[in-house]
Design brief:
Layout lengths: L1 H22 L10 H33 L4 H17 L6 H18 L5 E6 L4 E4 L19 H8 L5 E7 L4 E12 L2 E11 L1 H7 L10 E6 L24 H9 L1 E7 L5 E11 L2 E10 H11 L1 H8 L23 E3 L4 E5 L4 E7 L3 E7 L3 E7 L10 H7 L6 H13 L9 E6 L5 H10 L7 E5 L5 E7 L4 E7 L6 E6 L6 H8 L11
Length: 515
């Protein structure tokens, strides 16, 4: 028996320790340049990625230039070229030439495997050998069907240049760049080694999104404002297809480098840092961006105690003496009642309503023109109890409605890329559940810019109607001290916690607002 009480006392001390640990954390005070820290971090990523690209091309260039002194490859070039000249006169030695072509192929995969293909081109533009033997094999780049490609124009107009920048190359059916190495037999110019490489390597370097969160990306743009790498947010390839005519690109072309909050090629506000640099005479722009909404949410999480204590003071005021004018009429669709400790979904315009939300909280999820959820959550739910001890003491009475709804939405209603269009509205006469709700939403990847809080501490309770067809929430605030107050909001236009955070954040770079 004594052992039992000893164990129980130890368990109690452990639980008490956890309780104190959770509830005695200090309130961190944010500094003066919150956004500036994130810009600095993006600049560091930009510098590191640019250095990797420059290093990669330097390595590729060394390999390519080495072929000019590669006796084995030069021998293959001379003999294969001579064979085709002799074969044109009717003399044929197939076995010996096949041996030389095989030798060239072995050399390629042994030494030049970083390239996609190698073309042996004579001085008149004829491709007499290649590894891949695609549609350009045995065609003439000067007079044939590929005479209008960037490679053909390069060899005809500026053959002294060693690098042909990325353009779509029809024989390979993808973007390609080339290193051009002239070939001399004794002192006579006889053609070129043309080493072809795809953009896959650069794409792989920049598509590594480590430390860039859910929305950060790095991409390249050429002088024609076309993307040279794939977008993180577009399923199909954007290489040489997507034009990026943003303020970041325009500034980079004008002033070389800089940082700014802009609208990106998706029309979304981002922190953008950019720099124009040269690779073998080609001007490219490297851009690193992350969604402004993600940065604001990250700052909130870092200084949660500080900002949460101020959010309520910045919430949109609700006039407790007069009704809000201009309420939208409800749809004629039938309504469905949601009682305490219940939630319901609508996707066909059905109206959801709940009544008597006093010590409880109503949470509404809305995806415009698609679906919505309404939950009436009581104080025994985990959104009211961040403390593990309290949750433990609730035992089987504890509910987890917010978590259940989010799991359903992720599993059945949305693809991951659609999550940023989901809106969440919290309606309450108190703030007891606000901190935990925000925590859970942020953990699920929902940003503060997607969350609105309708709050009236003067009311005793609220009756709520969610009109999914019109994406509208109607709240009747009721009190024993004054007449009912009606509040109506179109959800996409409602002020969000993201907007409130921006109003509270310290100025950046001496400007009147935080950015």
């Amino acid at each position: 028996m004594n052992a039992f009480w000893k164990y129980r006392n130890h368990a109690g001390l452990i639980v008490l320790f956890i309780f104190l640990l959770v509830n005695t954390g200090c309130k961190r005070i944010p500094g003066d340049n919150l956004i500036g820290r994130d810009f600095q971090f993006l600049r560091e990523i930009r510098a590191a990625k640019k250095e990797r690209i420059i290093t990669y091309f330097a390595e590729i260039k060394n390999i390519a230039k080495g072929i000019a002194s590669d006796k084995s490859m030069l021998d293959c070039f001379y003999l294969i070229k001579k064979y085709y000249q002799v074969a044109a006169s009717g003399i044929d030695d197939v076995l010996s030439i096949q041996k030389k072509e095989y030798e060239a192929d072995v050399n390629f995969v042994t030494i030049y495997k970083d390239f996609y293909d190698i073309l042996f081109v004579d001085s008149k533009g004829f491709i007499f050998h290649s590894i891949k033997q695609e549609d350009d094999y045995h065609t003439n780049l000067f007079t044939g069907r590929y005479s209008d490609t960037s490679l053909a124009r390069h060899l005809k107009e500026v053959p002294e240049r060693e690098f042909v920048s990325y353009e779509f190359y029809p024989p390979s059916d993808e973007p390609a760049a080339f290193f051009v190495v002239p070939v001399y037999e004794e002192k006579d110019f006889v053609g070129w080694f043309v080493l072809q490489f795809p953009i896959n390597k650069i794409n792989a370097i920049l598509s590594d999104h480590e430390n860039l969160g859910r929305t950060g990306e790095v991409y390249l743009v050429n002088e024609n404002k076309l993307m040279l790498t794939d977008s993180r947010f577009i399923e199909d390839s954007t290489i040489l297809k997507r034009k990026v005519d943003t303020e970041a690109v325009k500034l980079a072309l004008r002033q070389k480098t800089g940082d700014k909050i802009i609208k990106d090629y998706r029309g979304i506000n981002v922190l953008s840092t950019f720099e124009q640099f040269e690779v073998f005479g080609q001007s490219w722009i490297i851009i690193v961006e992350i969604d402004e909404d993600e940065v604001v949410s990250k700052i909130y999480k870092e200084y949660e105690k500080y900002f949460l204590s101020k959010i309520v003071d910045h919430l949109p005021g609700i006039n407790t003496m007069n009704s809000v004018q201009g309420r939208k009429p409800l749809s004629n669709q039938k309504s469905k009642r949601v009682d305490i400790n219940e939630y319901a979904m609508t996707k066909s315009g059905e109206i959801l309503e709940t009544k008597g939300v006093g010590p409880c909280t109503t949470v509404i999820f809305s995806y415009p023109r698609s679906f919505g959820y309404l939950a009436h959550i009581s104080p025994v739910d985990e959104i009211y109890h961040k403390n593990p001890l309290t949750q433990y003491l609730l035992g089987n009475r504890k509910t987890s409605y917010l978590r259940k709804i989010l799991q359903k939405i992720r599993r059945y209603d949305l693809y991951p890329y659609q999550l940023n269009n989901l809106h969440c509205v919290i309606v309450a006469t108190h703030t007891k559940s606000l901190e935990t709700i925000i925590d859970q939403l942020l953990k699920e990847g929902i940003e503060l810019s997607q969350i609105s809080f309708f709050y009236n501490p003067s009311a005793d309770y609220a009756n709520i109607i969610f009109d999914q067809l019109n994406d509208c929430v109607n709240v009747e605030w009721k009190s024993h001290n004054y007449n009912p107050v009606f509040y109506s909001a179109h959800i996409p236009e409602a002020k969000t916690l993201g907007h409130i955070m921006k109003e509270m954040m310290p100025p950046h770079n001496g400007k009147t607002d935080y950015y």
